[in-house]
Amino acid sequence: MPALIRHAAVPTLVLALAVAAPMARVHAEHDPAHATTRADEAFGRAGVAKDVTRTIAIHSTDAMRFDPGALSITRGETVRLRISNDGRLPHEFVLGTKTEIDEHSKMMREMPDMVHTDSNAVRVAPGKSADVVWKFSQAGNFLYACLIPGHREAGMQGNISVAVRVKR
């Protein structure tokens, strides 16, 4: 391959990747069902609103608690989790495995102003609410937590039990 063509190929490849990456992100933001997160591989993925089977209200408080503190979901179910912040402080709601929550919690201590764009997490301002639509595709025990530094440590965490649907 002539040197001129070989040297021109690198900038062309870099330009192609620079254009394609933002387009892929815009596509994922436009259609969250196509967004991929680490949580997608662990126990679910962003749900599609038309597939929601029920809405579960979850309240966050400045007592550093979620109410309810535990959820039961059936594997394959798509739910709307409506998180309300009943306090005066901002709170987060992040779904994940224990390992993911532990890792993300550590990152939040290092970067407390991190803004979440993942489909399994929302930050909710005082007096506001936000939704997470999620399809739970794997059975098991998972967590939701507020990862603002100090909140989870004070007890702001809940459990999710995802069970296999029993066929009759």
Give short descriptive properties of this protein:
five-stranded mixed sheet; alpha+beta; 168 residues
Which class of secondary structure composition applies to the elements?
alpha+beta
Cα gyration radius (Å) = 19 Å
Largest sheet: 5 strands, mixed
Mean pLDDT: 81
Shape verdict: globular
| Low-confidence region ranges | 4-39
Q: What is the count of helical runs? A: 3
Strand-residue proportion: 25-35%
Total strand count, please?
10
Distance between the first and last residues' Cα? 66 Å
Can you tell me about this structure?
With 168 residues, the protein is α+β, with helices and mostly antiparallel strands. The chain has three helices and ten strands, in the order H-H-E-E-E-E-E-E-H-E-E-E-E. The chain has helices at residues 3-30, 38-42, 98-110, and strands at 44-46, 54-61, 65-67, 70-74, 78-85, 91-96, 121-124, 129-136, 140-145, 157-163. The N and C termini lie far apart (66 Å).
Short précis:
This protein has helices spanning 3-30, 38-42, 98-110; strands at 44-46, 54-61, 65-67, 70-74, 78-85, 91-96, 121-124, 129-136, 140-145, 157-163. By secondary structure, it is of the alpha+beta class. The N and C termini lie far apart (66 Å).
